[in-house]
Structure formats: structure tokens, C-alpha cells
């Protein structure tokens, strides 16, 4: 069992999850969170009663994929049950198969594709209650970390972190400080203050904007996939907890006319233009449209030219890598990263130099491919939407990907394989190596899926203009 004093900076989804995982290993974990408000005692109240200024996307739609559920069942026993008790519903995207897929017979293994779905504040309230119940976890809210303290180096010439300082002037010492401060983490500046080599940071605006409304009532039926690309927009219909769901229209953030989607009347007109999704908005609706843009794609590395820039300090979740959320993977990928952190710390507790080398190296092999896959897919889709908006030729699609998508729209095994890649259960190369999938994809080479029904660009702009 572990015997490490850990400070986790940030009590978001992944900060809370990693704290619970490490405490179960016997480590002592203090979680320091800048936002002062605790979660309400009844998790479903978090939607209305919990203010979280530190998480810009707090009230944006979130789904958590089966990979999240599998990891919870393995590493955070009880969380799936607690989510169900808070009103999360079980969702299988096989129920949202495209109309072109006519074989609906269940297959053994379909249960592996089941996910738990609910609103992000409710999820975070459950994770917070779970963390606070773990012996060995202390969660302190209203404590903003403002810098790092340095101790004796574990690698000559490389600064070693031995604690944090807070805005209130407290000092918390630690064998390991974990940055779980999300996509806007300030820790690069703190490392600069210690004189480290700058971490490698690659960041760009993902180029997406999201417009969302929330509904309540009996869940509408699926008539098309949960997320569907339609020319210059995408429509996401996402069931959530306690008889709620969201509908999101997302598009290029440079698409000026579509900025009118922030007007609820415009949003409704546009969604009504999509015949297979329009019924999702015939329900009790919350006022307003939730809007977010300027979402960063960002990766950071604390190993530069093969050498850690720091020991005693690491990153997890969005502070390590975050992508545009079109595929809704951040929490699942963050949990994979947290799981790996836990494992590497178990092997190298008390050996900060080894931990600082091993964790980023293994994350690069085991977790980063999911981030890279998402980044590539997003760039292709943004370029496509951009070209359609400007009326210039659309960049040619990756022929392998186009054939995979076309096959998935007709072949139930390939559709399941596609879901596995979307939901972080497998990487495309793994599923494309399966003989049946490879043959089905090969047979569709040179084809692309038929476009789903909906307005073309001109009709879309007419709907926007009203
Ligand atoms: C629009 C949008 C939609 C998304 N949809 C999905 C989805 O459908 N599915 C999915 O899996 N992911 C989704 N994501 C991604 C998901 O929100 C993140 O991956 C996830 O929140 C990462 O958790 P985290 O704990 O790493 O960081 P965060 O949840 O961002 O938490 C960071 C925490 O650090 C705290 N903090 C910051 N600075 C300090 C400081 N100095 N001292 C102490 N505390 C500090 C903050 O207050 C915050 O509580 C979405 C993201 C966006 C932007």
C-alpha cells in the first residue's frame, strides 16, 4: 500500500477521481479547490444550486462514455451505483443507430457499450461526495493555490517540488503535487518561478462554437444518431439524468451568421429544420441558450528532450491534455490518465525521478493516442465546415475513414466497432484490424455515407434569418 502525501490542486471531475483512487491505495490526499461552494447534499440539486466559476463548461452538455463506467467499476467501486441513485440513466448508443442500419438484433457484449449519462454538475456532486467519504481524502474549498515550493533535487539540476502555497498564505507540503486545474491551469508560470525548463505546450483554438438548450419530460425516441454532422452544423441530442436532456447545435466559431443561434427563437427555428431531430425540442425547456466558444485544443509535456523538467509535480486530466469536446471524451480520457497515474505511483512511490520519467512516457503510449485521434478528427471536420461555409471545394476526406463511416452506417458489426472508437474503448487501428471490419470497410472503399436529411447551407441561413 502507498504512503505518499499528495496535494491535488483542483476539485474538478478528474481531481476528485484521482484523489479517491490514490486514497484507496493508502496515500494521504489533500484536494485544494479555489471555488468556495461545496456541492449540495442532494446531487440532482447541483444543476440549480451549485455555482462553479472555476469550470467554464460546468453547465455545458457532458456525456461520459463506457470507458468512464468501466474505469469507475474497476477503480472507484460504488460510483456507478451512486450515479444511478442520483438519477443518471443507462444509455446505449446502439439505440441511436442510423436508420440505414436495419439489423437491430442484440449481440453478446453489447452491455460493454452501455454508458451512464447525466448533467455535469450532478456527476461532479457525486464524485465530490464519493471523494469526501474516502478515508485519507481531505477536500478544502475556497483555497486557491498560487505557487509551488521547492526542496532538494531528485535529478541534478532539475527543480523538485515539495509543496504548494495558497492565496491565504498557507503552505501545504507534499511528496507529490498534482495539477488538476483544468484547461486554464496557471502552473506553467509557477514552474517558471522555480526556474524549470519550460514545459512543451501546444495550444490552438479548436475553432468550434456550441449552442445548447435543456429540456425535461419523457425522453424522445432516436430517429438518427446522437451526434450527426449536417453540412456546416452538427446536431447533438444527449439524454441526461432525471428526465432531462440537451440539444446542441455546434459549428465553426468563425461562422458569423450562425452566432444568431444564441437567440432561443433562432435556435428553435434551426432545430425544427432537421426532420429527424426536431421532436427533441417539443418539451418543457429551460430559458436561454448556453453558449461556449474559444475552446482550446492543448497538450503539455513535462518531459523535454527526454528529461523531466521537474520532479514532485505532475499534471492530470485537462491540465495535461484537452481537446474540443465534439466527441465528449475529456472525462473518459482524464480518467484513463488518472488510472495510469495511480499505477505508476504504485510502482515508483518514494522514487520521484523514476515517477517523473515513467508517467509521462507511459501516458504518451497509452492515453495520448486517444487525444491525437480526436485532434485529427476535429481538424478534418472544422476544415470541412469552413469550406462549405465559404463555398470552396471541401478538402478530400481520408479514404479509410470515409469507407469506415460508410460501412458503419450499414453493417452492425462495423457500427459497433465505430462506437468503440468514439467511446474510447479502442483505437481505430485496433478495430480496423479485425477481419470482418477490414473486409466490410474494403468493400465500401471509394464511397462515403449518405448525408442525413436536413437543410442545405442556403436553407439553413434562411432559418437563421427567420
Ligand atoms: C463545452 C465543453 C463540453 C464538454 N463536454 C464533455 C463531454 O460531453 N464529455 C466529457 O467527457 N468531457 C467533456 N468536456 C471536457 C470536460 O469538461 C473536461 O475534460 C473535464 O472537466 C476535465 O476535468 P479536470 O478535473 O481535469 O478539470 P476541471 O473540471 O476544469 O477542473 C479544474 C478545477 O481546478 C480548479 N482550479 C483552477 N485553478 C485553481 C487554483 N489556482 N487553485 C485551486 N483550484 C484551482 C477549478 O476551479 C476547477 O474546479 C467538455 C468540455 C467543454 C469545454
Describe the structure.
- Strands 11, 12, 13, 14, 15 and 16 form a 6-stranded antiparallel sheet that branches. This protein has a 5-stranded parallel sheet with strand order 5-2-1-9-20.
- Helix 1 runs parallel beside helix 5, helix 7 runs antiparallel to helix 15 and helix 11 packs across helix 14.
- Helix content is 35%, strand content 23%.
- The longest helix is centred in the C-terminal third of the chain and has 23 residues.
- The protein contains 15 helices and 21 strands.
- With 466 residues, it is of the alpha+beta class.
- The mean pLDDT is 95.
- Among the domains are: 154 residues, FAD/NAD(P)-binding domain; 89 residues, D-Amino Acid Oxidase, Chain A, domain 2 (2-Layer Sandwich).
- A hairpin with a 4-residue loop joins strand 7 and strand 8.
- The chain binds flavin-adenine dinucleotide (FAD).
Helix-strand blueprint:
Elements: E1 5-9, H1 13-24, E2 28-33, H2 46-49, H3 66-75, H4 79-85, E3 89-92, E4 114-117, H5 120-133, E5 137-141, E6 145-155, E7 158-166, E8 171-173, E9 176-179, H6 187-194, E10 200-205, E11 208-216, E12 227-230, E13 233-239, E14 244-252, H7 264-272, E15 284-285, E16 290-293, E17 296-301, E18 303-304, E19 307-308, E20 313-315, E21 321-322, H8 330-348, H9 352-366, H10 368-390, H11 399-408, H12 412-422, H13 428-432, H14 435-443, H15 457-465
Parallel strand pairs: 1-2, 1-9, 2-5, 9-20
Antiparallel strand pairs: 3-4, 6-7, 7-8, 10-17, 11-14, 11-15, 11-16, 12-13, 13-14, 17-21, 18-19
The structure holds flavin-adenine dinucleotide.
The site of flavin-adenine dinucleotide (FAD) has 39 residues, from helix 1, strand 2 and helix 8.
